[in-house]
Amino acid sequence: MVVGSYLNCVRLDGAALMELGSWSHLVGRFIAVATAGRLTAEERREVDAWLESEGESRIYWEQPVADQRHGLEAARMIVAARPDRRDLIRAGLLHDVGKRQANLGVIARSMASVFAKLRMPVRGSWRRYLDHGPLGAEELAGLGSGALVVEFARHHHGRRPATIPGEEWDVLRSADR
Ligand SMILES: [Fe+2]
Ligand SMILES: [Fe+2]
Question: Most buried residue, 30, 136, 170, 173, by most Cβ within 10 Å?
């Protein structure tokens, strides 16, 4: 099964090329997580300006440094594209807060992702890591973070929901790369 799935990834048709894209994304995220630096005092002020409650502040700063930086970089990309849309910027900033519920290091995260790509069974903290979108969305909904923030967290690894217009989805997804 593993070999069959692997071979699926190296076919050179359209679907396989999309899968290769996903694999390269995995490698890119591994490197980013392994090399992320702490946010500076100025960057922390930049983040705090987008957070709207004590609860949001708690779950953002509970994240590992790499996820803090990833959220900030996503928010900055959205600021560059749509500086007038605070809700989009906040959606980018907060979309991965659910990952901290799994409490996994970079190696375990990568293993969980590879197992999922190979359609192997995944449970426990690895399952929570793979479900970080919906898990984070539930937390954000409980904090009253706003519909777009909640919906992007929930769906950011899947298909665009009807609740997010295509143009906004494209901005958000581009920022999450
Ligand atoms: Fe994510
Ligand atoms: Fe992300």
Answer: 136
